[in-house]
């Protein structure tokens, strides 16, 4: 799993602001892609890298807030840094409630924006990592046979091999064999590791 | 007409009271008796026949007693003449020689009674009609009077409503102006903030590129150039707003300044009247012409006049007089003077009068004089203020005369 180069998406209808922000973010060595409107952003092909969005609240067409809702509904979890002019307090409240990562007022101080971008990227990186792990675990668990899954569920519940054999109506030796297969297929180092992965899988399914 | 006759005629002719009827018949009898006595008395001196007093009695009876008593008097008179005056005397017989004469007399009596009775009826009908008419006229007059009072009341009410409406409208206009200012401010803030945000972002980027271990001059320069561009755009926005407030190039045409002043005085009349201010218009007899935007010039004069009226609202110890004067000194200029007897100008106020957003009023916006001065200066003129020796202030502006300079 190698770390890809993170990308910052800047969406602002004002060219000069767009260019200024792009230059500023590039100066600290980050990759930047700019868009003049929310529609352009939605239409573009986005690289699968850690990313964050620097978004102007007020834009002609789809507003920043509209884009935020659309991304959420489409299941695209990307941290958003909102930039707004004066007098947008109700908007800020709405955006924060919908889970905006940061809210900055125009004119934005360069350092504030860079800090917010770094934080947003770190958070996205962590989230992606978590998602990757969850996916990995899920695929490992899906490779188990139904019988192995039954054994796994009882193992995680803390039952002994003998008890599992009684409950499933098989010999203790068979349970042991299944158990060994489960440990192998899930790449579990120990029983504790297996239990942790099982918990994670459960919580990711619940999500 | 006698009192008795009046009394008789005052009664309703269609239904005379019993007593009245008796009185009228008695009157007829008395009159005939009177005629008989007079005729008898005069018979000695004038000889026979002397009967015309009976005719008078018949006429009077018919007139005052109406038809019934009239006929009674005719009968009584005839009998009396037959008895006392036609031979054979003291008998109701009439000798054949006197018969034509007697019959003529009777015919005269009957004719008189008929005629008078007819006249009387006509008279009564007329009188009644007149009385009714008078009554109707009186009723109608009362109705009209009531209607008139109602109308007057309605007019007063309407006047009050109009005054309220006017006050409300003025209030509305002020509110609208304040709202517009609010919106304008918000829009200006946004318009200016946008390029400022670009300036800040690019300036920060420029610094960031320069602060790298190996400064990237090319990137820094590009960012600095964008910052300059943003700053230029911000200043363009400001310039645009300024030109919105005072159009950079006024629509110039030949303007009769006296006419503009007259129109302005009419516009300000209502406000002046409400504040008990008398506007005195002293216009230059030369009717000078200037080259300019008449609407803008009117705005300036109206603004000065309104300020002058406002300055006098608290004055109570002297007449509130506003003098609006145009002068044309010989130097090819005209001068428009707005003089008031108001609270005047303190030195401090005088110094800041033309600053934007400076105001002495609670509801003022402080833009009027600043804009006025810009307008006059855009017309190549000057606008200034002075204190009057006697209290109050004088605002005046000069403009070049078109009719002089071109000649």
Q: What descriptive keywords fit this protein?
A:
heterodimer, A: 207 residues, alpha/beta, Rossmann fold, Arc Repressor Mutant, subunit A, 2 domains, five-stranded parallel β-sheet, 5 strands, 58% helix, elongated, B: 407 residues, alpha+beta, Helix Hairpins, Heat Shock Protein 90, 3 domains, five-stranded mixed β-sheet, two-stranded antiparallel sheet, 11 helices, 7 strands, disordered N terminus
Describe this structure in words.
The complex is a heterodimer of chains A (207) and B (407). The relative contact order of chain A is 0.10. Chain A has helices at residues 15-27, 38-43, 64-73, 89-97, 110-142, 146-156, 161-168, 172-185, 191-206, and strands spanning 7-11, 31-35, 51-56, 80-84, 102-105. By secondary structure, chain A is α/β, with parallel strands linked by helices. Chain A has 2 domains: 7-131, 3-Layer(aba) Sandwich (Rossmann fold); 143-206, Winged helix-like DNA-binding domain superfamily/Winged helix DNA-binding domain (Arc Repressor Mutant, subunit A). The mean pLDDT of chain A is 85. Chain A has 9 helices and 5 strands, in the order E-H-E-H-E-H-E-H-E-H-H-H-H-H. Chain B has 3 domains: 3-140, no CATH class; 171-245, Helix Hairpins; 253-405, Histidine kinase-like ATPase, C-terminal domain (Heat Shock Protein 90, 2-Layer Sandwich), CATH 3.30.565. Chain B is built from 11 helices and 7 strands. Chain B has helices at residues 3-10, 18-46, 52-65, 67-85, 99-211, 217-245, 257-274, 294-312, 347-352, 368-378, 402-405, and strands spanning 253-256, 278-282, 289-292, 321-327, 333-340, 382-387, 393-400. At the A-B interface, helix 1 and helix 5 of A face helix 5 and helix 6 of B.
Order of helices and strands of chain A: EHEHEHEHEHHHHH
Number of helices of chain B: 11
DSSP strand tally of chain A: 5
Instruction: Note the total helix count of chain A.
Output: 9
- CATH class identity of the largest domain in chain A: Alpha Beta
Per CATH, the architecture of the largest domain in chain B is 2-Layer Sandwich
Total domains of chain B: 3
């Amino acid at each position: 799993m190698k770390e890809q180069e993170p990308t910052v998406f800047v969406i602002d209808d004002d060219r000069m602001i767009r260019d200024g922000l792009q230059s500023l973010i590039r100066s600290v060595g980050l990759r930047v892609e700019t868009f003049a409107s929310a529609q352009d952003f939605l239409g573009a092909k986005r690289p699968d890298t850690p990313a964050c969005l620097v978004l102007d609240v007020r834009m002609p067409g789809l507003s920043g807030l509209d884009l935020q809702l659309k991304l959420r509904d489409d299941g695209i979890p990307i941290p958003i840094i909102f930039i707004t002019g004066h007098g947008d307090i109700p908007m800020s409240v709405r955006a924060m409630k919908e889970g905006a990562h940061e809210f900055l007022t125009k004119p934005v101080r360069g350092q504030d924006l860079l800090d917010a971008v770094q934080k947003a990227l770190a958070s996205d990186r962590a989230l992606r990592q978590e998602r990757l792990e969850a996916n990995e675990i899920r695929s490992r668990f899906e490779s188990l046979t139904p019988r192995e899954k039954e054994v796994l569920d009882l193992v995680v519940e803390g039952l002994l091999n003998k008890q599992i054999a009684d409950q499933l109506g098989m010999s203790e030796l068979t349970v042991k064999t299944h158990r060994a297969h489960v440990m192998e297929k899930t790449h579990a180092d120990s029983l504790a590791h297996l239990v942790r992965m099982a918990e994670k899988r459960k919580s990711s399914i619940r999500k | 007409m006698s009192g008795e006759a009046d009394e008789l005629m005052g009664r309703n002719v269609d239904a005379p009271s019993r007593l009245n009827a008796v009185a009228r018949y008695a009157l007829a009898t008395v009159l005939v008796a009177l005629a008989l006595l007079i005729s008898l008395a005069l018979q000695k001196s004038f000889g026979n026949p002397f009967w015309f007093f009976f005719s008078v009695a018949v006429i009077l009876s018919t007139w005052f007693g109406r038809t019934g008593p009239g006929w009674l008097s005719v009968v009584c008179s005839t009998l009396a003449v037959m008895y006392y005056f036609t031979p054979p005397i003291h008998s109701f017989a009439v000798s054949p020689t006197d018969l034509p004469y007697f019959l003529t007399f009777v015919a005269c009596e009957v004719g008189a009674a008929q005629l008078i009775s007819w006249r009387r009826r006509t008279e009564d009908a007329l009188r009644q009609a007149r009385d009714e008419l008078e009554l109707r006229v009186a009723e109608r007059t009362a109705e009209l009077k009531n209607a008139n009072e109602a109308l007057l009341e309605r007019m007063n009410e309407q006047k009050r409503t109009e005054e309220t409406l006017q006050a409300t409208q003025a209030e509305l206009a002020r509110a609208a102006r304040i709202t517009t200012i609010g919106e304008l401010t918000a829009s200006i803030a946004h318009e200016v903030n946008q390029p400022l945000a670009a300036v800040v972002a690019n300036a920060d980027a420029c610094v960031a590129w320069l602060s790298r271990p190996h400064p990237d001059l090319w990137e820094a320069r590009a960012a600095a150039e964008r910052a300059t561009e943003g700053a230029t755009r911000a200043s363009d926005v400001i310039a645009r707003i300024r030109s919105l407030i005072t159009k950079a190039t006024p629509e110039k045409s030949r303007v009769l300044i006296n006419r503009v002043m007259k129109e302005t005085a009419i516009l300000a009349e209502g406000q002046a009247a409400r504040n008990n201010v008398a506007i005195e218009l002293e216009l230059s007899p030369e009717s000078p012409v200037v080259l300019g935007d008449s609407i803008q010039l009117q705005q300036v004069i109206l603004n000065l006049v309104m300020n002058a009226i406002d300055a006098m609202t608290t004055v109570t110890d002297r007449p509130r007089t506003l003098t609006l004067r145009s002068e044309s000194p010989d130097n090819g200029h005209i001068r428009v003077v707005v003089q008031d007897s108001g609270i005047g100008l303190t030195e401090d106020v005088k110094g800041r009068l033309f600053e934007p957003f400076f105001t002495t009023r609670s509801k003022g916006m402080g833009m009027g004089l600043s804009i006025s001065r810009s307008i006059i200066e855009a017309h190549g003129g000057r606008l200034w203020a002075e204190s009057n020796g006697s209290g109050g202030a004088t605002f005046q502006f000069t403009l070049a005369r078109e009719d002089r300079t071109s000649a």
